[in-house]
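Hello,

Our lab assistant flagged a job as stuck in the queue for most of the afternoon. It eventually completed. Since we weren't sure the result was trustworthy after the delay, we are filing this so someone can double-check. Below is the sequence as submitted and the structure that was eventually returned. Let us know if re-running is recommended.
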Amino acid sequence: MKLSFRFVLHTDRPRGFTLVELLVVIAIIGVLVGLLLPAVQTAREAARRSSCSSNFAQVGKGLLNYESARMSFPMGSKGNNVGLPNWRVHVMPFMEMTEIYEQITMTNVFASTVLLGKFPQWWCPSSDLKMNPTDWSTWFTNPGHFVPAFIGIAGAAPDPAGRTTMNFNSNYGGIWCGNGMLVPNETMRPADCTDGTSNVIIAGEQSAPVPLVSGADLRNRYYTPWGGVTWSTPVSTTNGGSTDSWGMGITGVRYKINPISAAAGANAPYGANTALTSRHAGGMNALRADGSTSFVSESIDFLNFQKQCVRDDGQVTSEQ
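-- returned structure --
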C-alpha cells in the first residue's frame, strides 16, 4: 500500500478589523466611559462627604468630652487678645490631640509652630483650598498655620426672635453674634440650649471658596485661625460703636450656605460673618450641640436655617 501526502498551502491570512469597525469599537468604549465616569465621581464624592462627616463627629466628640469635664462648652473665642486660643484649641485634649495641645503657646497662639502641621481631624477631603495658606501679609506676617474646615457658630443676625442685645455691629462691617453655642467671651451649657441640643447647630463647614470674589479664599483665617478676639466683654454688654472688633474661630450666620459673593462681615478673613461653604454637592455638613452631624441643604429656607443656629429663640424649625 502506497501512502501519499498532499500539502496545501493556504495563503489567506486572518482578516483584521477594518477602520470602520475599529472606530465603532472606540466610540462604544467612549460612550461606556462617559456613562461610568459620573458614577465613579459621584461615588468618590460620597466617600469624601462621609469622611468629612466622620471628621466632624470627632470634633463633636471633643466638644462633648470637654463639656463633660468642665460642665460647659468652651468659649467660642476669648479676648481682648487675639493671641489667646479659641475653642478649637481647647477641645484638642478631648479628641486625642494632647501632644499637639501641649506644644501650643497659650498666651500667644500665633507663635505656635506646631500649628504649621496638618490635622486630618479638622479637614474636609472635598476641599480644594490650601491647608496652610501663606497668601497674605498686612498688619501681621502670615505664619502659615493650618486652617480648619470647621468653624464655630456664634449665632445668627438679626436674631430670629427680634432680640436686640444678642449682637453688635463691628467697626469693620458685619455683626458679631452671641445667641449661639460657641460665642465670644462666654461659656454655654447644654441647659442654655433651650431649643434642644439636637436642633441647634454648634459648628459648620467653611471649606470652599466664594466664587465671585477676587482671591476666593475668605475662610476665617487671619492672624491665626486658632486665635481669639480683640475685645473682652460678652456680646450683650459690648458697645459695638466704640470697640475694635475682629477675631477668629467663630462666625455669625448672616448669609446663605455657599453664597456667590461676599458682603459686609464676610468679605475679610477676620470678619464677624465669614460664609459657610462646602464643595459637597448641594450643601454642607453641620455639627449639632448633641454631637450629631447632619447634611444641610444650601437651598434651605434661610430664616429656618438661622433659627437652627440660635440656642434659645423658641422658634419652630424644620429640616428644609
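-- support follow-up --
The delay was a queue issue, not a problem with the job. The result is valid. Residues 266 and 275 are 6 Å apart (CA to CA). The chain is about 20% helix and 10% strand.
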